[in-house]
Amino acid sequence: MKLKTRLMVAFCIIIILPIALAGAAILGLYRIQTKAIQKNYGLEASDTQGVLSNSLQLMSRYTKTEYDEICKQAKTDPEKLESVSYLEEVNTKLQEKSSYLIFCKNGILVYNGYHGDSSISDEQWEEQLPSYGEGDSGTGAAYYVDNDAQSLLKQVDFESSMGDQCSVYIITSSESIQPEIKKLMIDISLSVLLILALTAGVMTIWIYRGTMVPIKKLQVATKNIKEGNLDFTIDYDEPDEMGDLCRNFEDMRKRLKESTEEKVAAEKENRALISNIAHDLKTPITAVKGYSEGILDGVADTPEKQERYIRTIYNKANEMDRLLNELTLYSKIDTNRIPYNFKKINVSDYFNDCIEEIGLDLETRGIGLTYFNYADEDIVIIADPEQLMRVVNNIVTNAIKYMDKQKGQINVRIKDVGDFIQVEIEDNGKGISARDLPYIFDRFYRTDSSRNSSTGGSGIGLSIVKKIIEDHGGKIWATSKESSGTTMYFVIRKYQEVPNEQNIDH
User: Fold this and answer.
1) CATH 3.30.565.10 residue ranges for the chain
2) Which three-class secondary structure string do you get for 460-499?
3) What crossing angle do the helices spanning 303-334 and 241-296 adopt, rounded to 10°?
4) Which fold has domain 230-338?
5) In this predicted structure, what is the pLDDT of residue 59?
6) Where residue 225 falls among pLDDT bands split at 50, 70, 90?
7) Nearest to 423 by CA among 386, 474, 459
8) Contact 30, 50 (CB under 8 A)
9) What mean pLDDT is reported for the chain?
């Protein structure tokens, strides 16, 4: 919307909208308060207008329920009206209506239900109150009592069983006249003021957002780009000229940011790999260098020593080769440069073969292996067999490295957990501390702070495992107890055939 059009629309809205809203608010509040008055005073809808114009009639209606109750008791059970507990009960109800109860016997005030400060004594009340038989007892008539409180009075006369002349008076303060109407006027005034304030505020914000806001956003955006900062957004999407300009600018920023992030990520990945390779190769290279110098300097002066030195050099070379292979694999997996070969795999058949292969290696190491398959034999998953085997091997290899028991044991369990297959690999190694457990799947993290690869591996085996499982749409976690062992868990979603709608008979 152009600025000229925006200003014209704003002017019309500022004039018309408050009038319409104020009228609607007044009508709504009037209806609400009218219903409240009908409920509180026991009025019919047809009688409301006439009663509202007569304050005396309105005050009389306010205590009609209690008055009728007293009249009924005077006819059926007059002795109950002489009970203070009953009078207190009725008086409690009347207090909610700015009213109270007075009871006189033989012209003497016996009960006064007024609990506030009053300048009128009981003797003055006895003088001002109508005597027995003077009021329109039982007719519902009410009239003002000319006292300091300017109160409305209803009178009910009856004779007790002992022949005493008793009168019950319902006194209603003039301060209670039409409280809902007073509230209505206050509500209407507040509503009109609120509508005017909101309308003015909304229009001001609308005009400001349509002009100055997009201009300021573009100013900030151009400054950020000039300084090389692309980490921001232009969140202005109005269907006008400024909106089109902001959207085009935002698209340009996103493309620049994506290009920059890809470049930075590649550089960061390369630096991280180089740094970690250098760090992890330092120890075996140092060892190879030291043992080589020992051979050259004649330290290894016996055939046995020479063979031991050469064997150590060979093992360190293998260690470096394995480390480089792991780093290369992780780099390819992390950058999604290794295409997965997903296939349908029968869980039972696959893990039977997998456990058979692992068992041969564990047997040569003197480590026991138990396998439990609690899943059905026909369950199928979608996975890359080679990469899934890598997951199992890495977990088992990691368990072997940290095996500190004379009789090592590894337990593998396959469970059906709803839509997933859960694999549990448990060992009785030295376990992982609670401090280290949350970080074992982080790349290059070792529980051994010295980063001794001979005891703790490269630190990327479990990170590779996590990456492969997540790429399969699964999840991996671990539990451990120091000196008792560790259990690795991972889940993979089961394969479920989706029925073809074309093959369903209608």
Assistant:
1) 343-493
2) CHHHHHHHHHHHCCCEEEEEEECCCEEEEEEEEEECCCCC
3) 170
4) Helix Hairpins (1.10.287)
5) 65
6) confident
7) 474
8) no
9) 80
